[in-house]
Design goal:
With 345 residues, the chain is α/β, with parallel strands linked by helices. The protein is 47% helix and 18% strand. The chain is built from 12 helices and 13 strands. The protein has an 8-stranded parallel beta barrel, surrounded by 9 helices. A hairpin with a 4-residue loop joins strand 5 and strand 6.
């Protein structure tokens, strides 16, 4: 199982200088490359300091010039926010600039906050339908001389300009949770990205079972891969692990607040949650984080990841967004590289 890193530029306070946060993110990427991780993934989000990522291709091109070996993935492009011709061209140019290191992840998106600003009236169903139209269109544009008359986009015969370095095209990944999404990805010959969020082993088993069932039913021409994206923290000791569980519990409370889209947002920052509000919401808890996520000493994390490998996951991406300080993120990543990665070489 390959081990990778997933992160955004994350801002939790108006006092945090954005240029400093960006350089800290780049430092973590450079550490990941030197440490032998397989890939770095970063996503697309808009108007949210929670995850600052207006165009992942910009970040990946910069990361490419600061690194030598890692694959560079979009985790993920939000399908309804981009035209097929634009996505085909921008992805291909990124693949050329990064010397063929691009992995193209695509999703329907998740935040109503973004939907109502970029495409008012859009819901998850409509976003999913746009993704199902976008993926085959992009692949066809890379083949060339393709005209499209779809429900959401229409254009005369067009060839992507430029064409990607990787042939026939960069690996495509589709974010999937429900069986229909897994089936769509497999039918399109796409790999699958999935995240159980804060949920435990039952959800992790369900996700890969769904993927395997889709592969058995639709028999893809080439073997496909499945990646597990999950928060983790390699701790120095149990006290360190407990602190990480508390920090990730707070992160998920903010994640849930952004997802519900009911709380005031000012200057890109959501109104702070009080300790009382966090304590009252039992859907998330530090105990669940400690139990369900890859939090613990190196031996604990290794054992958990070995279980994922045995289930059949091809890649594990350590999700570093957490609301933690840069120092704590860096310390965990260094322990991950020095103590966990060697067990998977």
């Amino acid at each position: 199982m390959k081990l990778s890193l997933f992160l955004h530029m994350e801002r939790v306070s108006a006092d945090d200088a954005q240029d400093k946060l960006y350089e800290e993110m780049m430092t973590l990427c450079e550490i990941a490359d030197r440490g032998g991780l397989h890939a770095i993934w970063t996503g697309e989000h808009h108007g949210m300091n929670f995850t600052i990522a207006p165009n992942p291709f910009i970040n990946l091109v910069d990361i490419a010039h600061r690194t030598r070996h890692v694959r560079l993935g979009t985790g993920t492009i939000i399908a309804p926010f981009t035209h097929p011709i634009r996505l085909a061209g921008e992805a291909a140019m990124t693949d050329i600039i990064t010397n063929g290191r691009l992995e193209l992840g695509i999703a329907r998106g998740a935040y109503a906050f973004e939907y109502e600003r970029l495409l008012p009236g859009l819901d998850a169903w409509g976003a999913g339908q746009r993704m199902r139209e976008l993926v085959p269109a992009v692949k066809a544009l890379w083949r060339g001389d393709y005209a499209h008359q779809g429900e959401f986009w229409q254009f005369p015969s067009t060839t992507s300009s430029p064409l990607p370095k990787q042939q026939p095209h960069p690996p495509i990944w589709v974010a999937a949770r429900d069986p229909n999404s897994h089936e769509f990805a497999v039918k399109q010959g796409c790999n699958v990205q999935c995240t159980p969020l804060h949920q435990g082993d039952e959800e992790i088993v369900r996700l890969i079972t769904t993927f395997k069932e889709a592969c058995r039913e639709y028999a893809p021409e080439q073997p496909l891969k499945i990646m597990l994206l999950q928060h983790g923290f390699v701790a120095a000791d149990e006290a360190d692990a407990q602190q990480a569980a508390q920090e990730l519990n707070r992160f998920y409370h903010y994640f849930g607040a952004w997802f519900k889209n009911e709380r005031p947002v000012t200057q890109g920052l959501i109104a702070p949650l009080s300790d009382e509000e966090i304590a009252a919401n039992t859907y998330y808890s530090a105990e669940k984080m400690r139990q369900n996520l890859a939090i613990g000493t190196a031996d604990e994390v290794i054992a958990r990841l070995k279980n994922y490998e045995a289930l059949g996951y091809d890649e594990y991406a350590l999700w570093l967004d957490s609301g933690m300080t840069f120092e704590r993120k860096k310390a965990s990543l260094m322990r991950f590289i020095e103590q966990v990665v060697p067990e998977f070489h």
